[in-house]
């Protein structure tokens, strides 16, 4: 499944390069038009990130996210700055189908496990944004990708054994926005070692060949952002390839 992305900053569509807020590209296209175009192209889901929320640790564009969900008619997963159960409930009540939990999935696993139990695994996606060290070991970054962690990603993922966790989103920060292809080696490891999880891949897609390569892994979803904004190919082509 191809999942097109909208990254929001100050109500506008933007894309970051490797998670850097000082390396953003702004797009003049209204996010409402983008959402409608995704629906017209045949998307089922849309991924929305509140980058202001991710940076400031406080969800701040819930109203716009709700509007995009209702306007497009697409299923929506959204995140960015989610810190409280009340915020999750608000987004779900506003039309978001799944809420994406990022930093807290790393720093507060006990609390997040409780949320999974209270809300159900269909309502939460855990997002792990990782950097690879010189040995190829993935370590999550938190707080809008501004802080590194010292515990390997796979060890953190093991904390969710028995929690009912169903869906994870994994981004290789080094490839995000770079359009050099997805980290298929990392994704193969996850799919092999955690076969009961639905994996959504993110980061690096720049060509239809990159899409095809990821599709051979049969992940649950493939997020595409910058390549669609830049016109490298159309969403319809990505879905069909």
UniProtKB/TrEMBL annotation:
GO terms for molecular function: isomerase activity. Its main location: cytoplasm. The keyword Amino-acid biosynthesis applies. It catalyses: 1-(5-phospho-beta-D-ribosyl)-5-[(5-phospho-beta-D-ribosylamino)methylideneamino]imidazole-4-carboxamide = 5-[(5-phospho-1-deoxy-D-ribulos-1-ylimino)methylamino]-1-(5-phospho-beta-D-ribosyl)imidazole-4-carboxamide. Its EC number is 5.3.1.16. The active site is at residues 7, 129. The keyword Cytoplasm applies. Pathway: Amino-acid biosynthesis; L-histidine biosynthesis; L-histidine from 5-phospho-alpha-D-ribose 1-diphosphate: step 4/9. Keywords: Amino-acid biosynthesis, Cytoplasm, Histidine biosynthesis, Isomerase. It is found in: Cytoplasm. HAMAP family: HisA (MF_01014). Belongs to the HisA/HisF family. This is 1-(5-phosphoribosyl)-5-[(5-phosphoribosylamino)methylideneamino] imidazole-4-carboxamide isomerase. It comes from Algimonas porphyrae. The lineage of its organism: Bacteria, Pseudomonadati, Pseudomonadota, Alphaproteobacteria, Maricaulales. The gene is hisA.
């Amino acid at each position: 499944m191809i999942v097109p992305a909208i990254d929001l900053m100050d109500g506008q569509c933007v894309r970051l390069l490797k998670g850097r807020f000082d390396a953003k590209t702004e797009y003049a296209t209204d996010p409402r038009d983008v959402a409608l175009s995704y629906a017209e192209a045949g998307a089922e889901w849309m991924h929305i990130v509140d980058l202001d929320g991710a940076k400031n640790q406080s969800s701040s564009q819930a109203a716009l996210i709700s509007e995009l969900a209702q306007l497009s008619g697409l299923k929506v997963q959204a995140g960015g700055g989610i810190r409280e159960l009340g915020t999750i409930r608000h987004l779900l009540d506003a039309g978001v189908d799944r809420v994406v939990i990022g930093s807290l999935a790393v720093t507060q696993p006990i609390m997040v496990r409780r949320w999974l139990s209270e809300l159900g695994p269909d309502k939460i996606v855990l997002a792990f944004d990782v950097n690879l060290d010189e040995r190829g070991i993935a370590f999550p970054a938190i707080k809008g990708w501004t802080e590194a962690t010292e515990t390997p990603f796979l060890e953190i993922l093991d904390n969710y054994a028995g929690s009912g966790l169903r869906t994870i989103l994994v981004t290789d920060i080094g490839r995000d926005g770079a359009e050099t292809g997805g980290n298929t080696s990392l994704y193969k490891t996850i799919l092999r070692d955690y076969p009961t999880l639905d994996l959504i891949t993110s980061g690096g897609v720049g060509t239809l060949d990159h899409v095809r390569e990821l599709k051979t892994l049969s992940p649950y979803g493939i997020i595409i952002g910058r390549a669609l904004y830049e016109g490298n190919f159309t969403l319809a082509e990505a879905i069909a390839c």
